[in-house]
Write a structure and sequence with these properties.
Blueprint (H helix, E strand, L loop, with lengths): L1 H18 L4 H10 L2 H8 L6 E6 L2 H17 L4 E6 L2 H7 L7 E4 L5 H11 L3 E5 L5 H9 L3 E7 L13 H7 L4 E4 L2 H9 L5 E3 L4 H8 L7 H7 L3 E8 L1 H13 L5 E7 L4 H10 L4 E3 L13 E3 L6 H5 L4 E4 L12 H4 L5 E3 L7 H8 L3 E3 L3 H13 L1 H17 L3 H10 L1
Parallel strand pairs: 1-2, 1-4, 2-3, 4-5, 5-6, 6-7, 8-9, 8-12, 9-11, 10-11, 12-13, 13-14
Helix pairs in contact: 4-10, 6-7, 7-8
Length: about 400
């Protein structure tokens, strides 16, 4: 199987170069990897002490971020290397200032694995959540480099737990310790004879709770909100926006304000959204020289400020629940003690499932149900605050994973 895997890696690399001619995302994937070794050799010298972090994409980066930033403080003389598999992670965080080198992880060939580790030569490797690359892990094991997995999650349908997964179990033997999110992951690892496992929880909770301690003030949002009840709708898709527009146009009180931060900020789509609204609406891109408090709807046609905007919400709507990939990040509004509304496709996300059970997150299937729920929250402050407190308590109760991991690394 290991021999077949290596052949498939080379075949995949060949076909990706062809697909890259027609697909923008794959082009980033292929072209970005051509720069990886150059970036590494420019950023790391032979005598540097290095800690290497690897994550698949942006979500995994957010899980690893609390550990990256704590280790940066604890080990200031070390250089930190951050690698991504996906363009959606790398392109957003390629200028992340807390590390010394950010690059794509080269394809997992034997030659690339040796070349990569010859340059980086890390003293510690931190893999985040998943991403198990057999050649890289084998080379780490051969070189006896300390390697840990953080915020790991394992499921029965993974190859490790199937009859044909024996060769992949060898890759898991690279890890000195597994820090996993839940008891089920620990039980599954125990079934294949791994006992070096700690149920630490998910470091994302540490990350989102830290957000509440930063400066989240945005003067233009203060001006727009003007102490009014405000719904913040984040990462919305077309289907989400149709429901919200129906409510805003037909049912919203004059004392309600709405901030919509679409997932897609293409100009033509933003203009369609704006023109569909009958209430007075302003865009982020046209906010200058506007008296923002006179508007009822604020459309955020930029990226990077949604988390701070959630701090102004009396209630939040998180989009994506009508898409195949599912609802977006519900923890960001939850950490500010805000009740959350989502659409039905959320069952792949444990935090959304648990927030629904905690009566902090509420699911709507259509415009009618959304209107009923929004009217209820608008009129009943006590009920709104209860749901928000449930959300905040959920986040606080889940914090602490970073502390457990750092304690292990100090030993």
């Amino acid at each position: 199987m290991y021999f077949i895997y290596n052949i498939l890696v080379y075949i995949t690399g060949f076909f990706l170069k062809i697909v890259a001619l027609f697909n923008k995302k794959i082009k980033f994937f292929v072209e970005g990897r051509k720069q990886s070794f150059r970036k590494l050799t420019q950023g790391i010298s032979e005598n540097d002490k290095v800690i290497w972090f690897h994550c698949a994409s942006l979500g995994e980066f957010e899980q690893g971020r609390p550990i990256i930033e704590k280790l940066k403080i604890q080990y200031p003389t070390y250089k930190l290397v951050l690698t991504f598999f996906s363009p959606s992670g790398y392109e957003v965080r390629k200028n992340y200032e807390m590390v010394d080198v950010v690059c794509y992880l080269p394809l997992d060939t034997k030659q690339n694995a040796k070349r990569f580790l010859n340059i980086v030569n890390p003293e510690l490797v931190v893999f985040i959540k998943y991403e198990f690359w057999p050649n890289i892990l084998k080379e780490l094991k051969n070189r006896e480099i300390k390697t840990i997995l953080v915020s790991g999650i394992f499921r029965e349908n993974q190859a490790f737990f199937k009859w044909y997964g024996g060769w992949l179990i060898k890759s898991l033997k690279t890890f000195d310790h597994f820090f996993v999110q839940d008891k089920n992951s620990k039980i599954l690892l125990n079934t294949i004879n791994f006992t070096n496992v700690t149920v630490s929880g998910d470091t994302r909770f540490d990350r989102v709770y830290e957000i509440t301690k930063q400066d989240n003030q945005l003067p233009f949002i203060d001006e727009f909100k003007d102490d009014n009840y405000t719904l913040v709708a984040g990462s919305t898709w077309k289907e989400d926006e149709e429901l919200l527009v129906n409510y805003i146009n037909d049912n919203a009180s004059e004392n309600e304000k709405f901030i919509i931060a679409p997932h897609n900020i293409k100009s033509e789509d933003i203009q369609k959204l704006k023109s569909s609204l009958t209430k007075k609406t302003v865009l982020f891109s046209e906010k200058e020289h506007k008296n923002l408090k006179n508007f009822q709807v604020f459309i955020i046609d930029t990226i990077g400020i949604l988390t701070k905007i959630y701090s102004y919400a009396d209630i939040a709507y998180v989009g994506g629940g009508y898409t195949k990939s599912g609802v977006h990040n519900v923890l960001e509004p939850a950490t500010f003690g805000v009740p959350i509304i989502i659409a039905p496709n959320y069952h792949k996300f444990n935090e959304a499932i648990e927030l629904v059970k905690e009566e902090a997150c509420f699911v709507v299937k259509d415009s009618e149900k959304l209107s009923v729920l929004l009217n209820k929250f608008f009129q009943d402050k006590k009920n709104r605050e209860k749901a928000g407190n449930n959300a905040l308590k959920y986040v606080i109760d889940k914090t602490g994973a970073t502390t457990k991991i750092l304690y292990y690394l100090k030993k």
